[in-house]
Design a protein that fits this description.
The complex is a heterodimer. Chain A is α/β, with parallel strands linked by helices. Chain A has helices spanning 2-8, 33-37, 47-55, 79-82, 105-110, 133-138, 141-155, 166-171, 175-183, 205-218, 240-252, 266-270, 283-297, 310-324, 327-354, 369-383, 400-410, 422-432, 471-485, 490-498, 505-509; strands spanning 43-46, 88-92, 126-128, 159-163, 189-193, 229-234, 256-261, 277-280, 364-365, 389-392, 414-417, 436-439, 452-455. Chain B folds into 3 domains: 3-25 and 307-450, Nitrogenase molybdenum iron protein domain (Rossmann fold, 3-Layer(aba) Sandwich); 33-154, Nitrogenase molybdenum iron protein domain (Rossmann fold, 3-Layer(aba) Sandwich), CATH 3.40.50; 180-301, Rossmann fold. In chain B, the strands form 3 sheets. In chain B, strands 11-10-9-12-13 form a 5-stranded parallel beta sheet, sandwiched between helices. Chain B has a 4-stranded parallel beta sheet with strand order 6-5-7-8, sandwiched between helices. In chain B, helix 15 (328-340) links the parallel strand 9 and strand 10. The relative contact order of chain B is 0.14. Classes of the chains: A alpha/beta, B alpha/beta. At the A-B interface, helix 5, strand 3, helix 6, helix 7 and helix 8 of A face strand 1, helix 2, helix 3, helix 4 and helix 5 of B.
């Protein structure tokens, strides 16, 4: 174990200097992921080949002839995060449909009981400029102004976020011009975020656009260093229990967590510059913020690993400890925690051994986001599951080192990169036929199959301890959760039998998920 | 509760029929035109939307239309399975027509569907793609239509009207062919946006079957395209909404001469259902004896059932004020049922679907002239969630019938029990539940009494 620890042990950003780029926070927005990190969401093949392509900057995003609605820079990655910020109001500068998904956010968070730390003061208020035909002809700056003033009058918020849309992008609205004019009339800090759906093929550009605006408009110059404060950018794909587990572990080290952006207050953003370190839950998500905070305020960061699985959690804690002067305490904590959790982990591993057929480890397919890919594969290995293939929503050169390391440790594997392309995923799942598929259930009937299926993760407001995935408690909870998937497949099996398949038979019978590419990979 | 104050204000109906919402607005209870076409298409078995739009429009409506419509998964054609041209900047510059051409062609190849609904969003409209021309190339290969539905053109409910415009103008033949007697088509129930669409449609079908009329409800039925193709042969069209589907039945009258029967709402409970059946029966020459026998038989058991919760209602929540904030059709139907069958008192009715100004007086009259109580409610047309909530403050109502947006805080904000009836409804899995017909009214009574009942 000691050797393995050393191997993973990193000095945060040091190894990453070779791809370090200076962020230009004077600009209205960030560069797209395509430009900043050579990203793609179209790939199927050997991970080693993808790695080589990435190293040679030979990654491209060819157009698919058949494509499915996998999300844009605004929807749903960005809008569902911004609208949870507690003392802010969000304005969608858009036609009325771009914000419809936000109708559920007020309810969502209310599902967390107050006894678990959810604040009662929470409205998740948002407006839409409700652009009409006339507005796209004559311009909509008056409507944006009107919406800002309404937001101020109704809620007196600390911040007003403006989310742009395809329509405002194409008609050339001068958002900053309007903001400059109206900022003096309101107390709230106005924060425009450029998330026009058409700006990028990679939805992850939305993360960067958001953090760019946070760094540009909300983060304050540090008044004092808070040596015990750890920034953690949490994804909505991590549950409430994950937050509690992270808080518990860091609390035992005498540290406090500054969770952003979900359910945060504006002052939580303002103090990002005062923290001791920025720690990841998902590196692809946190990257831009982490680099920006280091560049502008000298806040150190690390991007790997995330606290998924026992050994990843050990290393995650050690990394944090290094920046907070808790090196001795952390070893004690890890030892204490291992006494509690390692026996439980071993019991789960024994269960998975029992599930082996002909001595072979059960295979699992499924991943979500390159961030999960690099942190979950070692965790599956820890559990005794084999991952002959992986699916990632995106890939870019921000995580080259981690991919290389995984290939070194786990051997080469097939990798599919796409953002919610249901047909491609259905093809791969059918052809590889893993013992367990982890699905993100947004994609029709592709989870209906005569084998084991479960979700890849729960979401945000879920307060149930069995839904956790982070830290030690999450490693055990998720392991047990995965075991459940092997115990009853009647729901998806019955539906596979009784309902029509999503696509025509020929689609499943041929083995190239990228059949509809205009050009080869 | 300032019951007295509110009653003093009830000298006349407060309303604002001219308040059509085009301004910036807080959390309105509808989505955009594209979303309405998307949801409507997904309501048809074998229908598949092909979105010519940015990449987020489909997944955005998974959350904003399908989940909001009673927590429905997308199925084989919805959510992230929906074909989409996923337009980005280079298409804005170079045009998106080639991308769309490839997408239609591949969708026809891969999808297990037979009605292809090309739905143009904001981007192609702004960049001037000639979508009709691209769609024309496929018309002899499959049933393909184009609905031009940019989000800035109209809201999701009007999207339902746009869908029918396209079906009638582009797909249905010029001649009706043979008319089949005692058949009707049902319009005015919008999939997902009318959250209880599945159960309401099937209930109307069953009710009409009971008096010898075959109803083509189109949605929910296997082989949806066949049902669409059968539309011209109906003897009558029926619309159960003051404004949705109305243009469709008018167009069908113009095209085929099919007469229509218009109801302002989905019939909820025994009284409205009897009225509905009598009127349809009369128009389609069903012997009145047949209709009356059916109504009598249903009413007999319906009203025996209504006696069971009597002690609970009278002891715990009799003659309670109620507030409604809902789409036009349900706002009318619920307000009438609660006032006319349960003895409840209408406090404020807010119409949230932004109906055209021309039909607002009709809606107002329907509510105003059909309540069996001396209490006259305020009837307000309001799309803005902040204002909807403000309008609910300081009033005597004990029950709130609205979207699930108010669910978590209805007690703390208004001291009112909450029952979700109108889009968006995220806190109910809606499969067979419905409020139409006899069972629907009884279901509503169950919901209401269950919200307060305990050991007496």
């Amino acid at each position: 174990m000691a050797n393995k620890h050393d191997k993973h042990h990193r000095k945060g950003s040091c190894k990453r200097n070779k791809i370090k780029k200076i962020l230009d926070l004077d600009k209205d927005t960030c560069p797209n992921r395509e430009q900043r990190a050579n990203g793609t969401n179209v790939y199927y093949g050997k991970a080693s080949e993808l790695l080589n392509d990435a190293k040679q900057r030979n990654i491209r995003i060819p157009d698919r002839k058949f494509q499915q609605s996998g999300g844009c820079v605004l929807n749903f990655y960005l809008s569902n995060r911004v609208t949870t910020i507690r003392d802010a109001v969000t304005i969608f500068n858009a036609p009325v449909g771009c914000s419809a998904g936000s109708l559920g956010y007020r309810e969502l968070y209310r599902g967390v009981p107050e006894s678990l730390g959810r604040t009662n003061e929470y409205n998740s208020a948002w407006l839409t400029t409700n652009l009409q035909q006339d507005d796209v002809v004559y311009g909509a700056s008056e409507k944006l102004r009107d919406a800002i003033l309404k937001a101020e009058e109704r809620y007196n918020p600390q911040a007003i976020f403006i989310l742009t849309s395809c329509t405002t992008g194409i008609i050339g609205e001068d958002i900053e011009g309007t903001v400059d004019e109206v900022q003096d009339e309101v107390n709230a800090k106005i924060v425009p975020i450029h998330c026009e759906g058409i700006r990028s093929r990679l939805v992850q550009t939305g993360y960067d656009a958001f953090w760019h605006a946070i760094l540009k408009y909300l983060v304050k110059e540090p008044e004092k260093k808070q040596e015990d404060l750890v920034n953690v950018a949490s994804m909505l794909s991590y549950t409430w229990q994950d937050r509690l587990e992270i808080k518990r572990l860091l609390g035992k080290l005498g540290l406090r967590v500054n969770f952003i952006p979900e359910f945060a207050t504006v002052s939580d953003f303002e103090q990002l510059s005062e923290a001791a370190v920025t720690a990841p839950i998902c590196p692809t998500y946190t990257d831009y913020l982490s680099r920006g905070l280091e560049q502008k305020y000298g806040v150190p960061y690390f991007l790997y690993p995330s606290p998924t699985g026992i050994s990843n959690t050990d290393e995650w804690l050690r990394n944090i400890a290094k920046y907070t002067g808790k090196e001795d305490e952390v070893e004690k904590l890890i030892e204490e925690e291992h006494k509690i959790w390692v026996p439980k982990m071993n019991a789960i591993k024994d269960e998975f051994v029992k599930l082996r057929k002909n001595g072979k480890k059960p295979t699992v397919l499924g991943s979500l986001g390159q961030g999960r890919l690099v942190s979950q594969m070692p965790y599956f290995d820890e559990l005794g599951l084999a991952t002959p293939a992986a699916m990632a929503q995106d890939f870019d050169d921000l995580l080259i080192d981690e991919l290389e390391e995984i290939i070194e440790n786990n051997g080469d594997f097939q990798i599919m990169v796409n953002t919610f392309q249901a047909a491609e995923q259905a093809n791969v799942t059918t052809n590889l036929d893993p013992d367990l598929t982890l699905t993100c259930p947004f994609q029709g009937g592709t989870w209906e199959r005569d084998n084991n299926v479960t979700r890849i993760h729960s979401l945000r407001g879920d307060p149930e301890p069995t839904s956790a995935q982070s830290g030690y408690a999450g490693a055990i909870a998720f392991g047990n959760f995965l075991l459940h998937a092997f115990k009853n497949k009647s729901y998806h099996k019955t539906l596979a039998e009784k309902t029509e398949k999503s696509y025509k038979d020929w689609w499943y019978e041929q083995d190239n998920p990228l059949y509809y590419l205009n050009e080869g990979k | 509760m300032t019951c007295k104050k509110a009653l003093e204000n009830k000298s006349g109906i407060l309303t604002n029929v001219e308040n059509f919402e085009r301004d910036s607005v807080e959390a309105p209870r509808y989505s955009c035109a594209l979303a309405g076409v998307y949801g409507t298409t997904l309501g048809i078995r074998g229908g598949i939307p092909i979105l010519h739009s940015g990449a987020g429009c489909g997944v955005g409506q998974l959350f904003g239309t399908l989940y909001a419509g009673g927590e429905s998964a997308g199925g084989n054609e919805g959510g992230t399975s929906t074909p989409c041209s996923c337009l980005v900047e280079e298409h804005v510059i170079l045009g998106g027509e080639e991308k769309l051409r490839n997408l239609i062609e591949s969708t026809i190849e891969i999808a297990n569907d037979d009605l292809f609904v090309v739905t143009s969003g904001c981007v192609p409209s702004l960049i001037g793609d000639d979508v009709d021309q691209v769609v024309d190339e496929f018309r002899d290969k499959a049933a393909v239509i184009h609905v031009n539905a940019p989000g800035f053109k109209a809201n999701s409910l009007e999207g339902y009207n746009l869908f029918w415009d396209a079906i009638i103008d582009q797909l249905l033949p010029d001649d009706a062919g043979d008319i089949e007697e005692k058949t009707v088509n049902i319009f005015g129930i919008v999939p997902y946006n009318h959250v209880y669409w599945k159960g309401d449609l099937l209930t109307i079908k069953t009710l009409l079957e009971s008096i010898g009329i075959k109803a083509n409800i189109i949605f929910t039925q296997k082989n949806g395209l066949d049902h669409i193709n059968r539309i011209p042969s109906a003897e009558y069209n029926i619309v159960v909404n003051p404004w949705l589907g109305v243009r469709a039945v008018e167009k069908l009258k113009e095209k085929y001469g099919t007469p229509f029967i218009k109801f302002p709402n989905v019939p909820i409970g025994a009284k409205q259902t009897a009225e509905f059946l009598r009127k349809v029966g009369e128009k389609l020459s069903v012997p009145s004896q047949t209709v009356e026998e059916f109504i009598n038989q249903k009413e007999d058991w319906n009203y025996r059932l209504m006696e069971y919760p009597g002690d609970a209602i009278i002891l715990v929540r009799p003659n309670s004020f109620y507030a409604v904030a809902a789409e036009s059709s349900y706002a009318i139907g619920f307000t009438k049922f609660l006032a006319n069958e349960l003895g409840y008192l209408p406090d404020i009715i807010q119409i949230t679907d932004n109906p055209p100004v021309e039909v607002r007086n009709e809606i107002l009259d329907e509510i105003k002239n059909n309540l069996d109580t001396v209490v006259e409610p305020d009837v307000v047309f309001e799309a803005d969630t902040y204002k909807i909530r403000k309008n609910l403050e300081d009033r005597p109502f004990l029950f709130l019938f609205s979207s699930s947006i108010e669910s978590p805080t209805s007690i703390e904000d208004y001291n009112a029990l909450h029952i979700p009836i109108s889009y968006p409804i995220y806190n109910k899995s809606v499969l067979v539940k419905h409020y139409a017909g006899y069972d629907g009214g009884l279901t509503l009574v169950e919901d209401i009494v269950s919200s307060f009942v305990g050991p007496l």
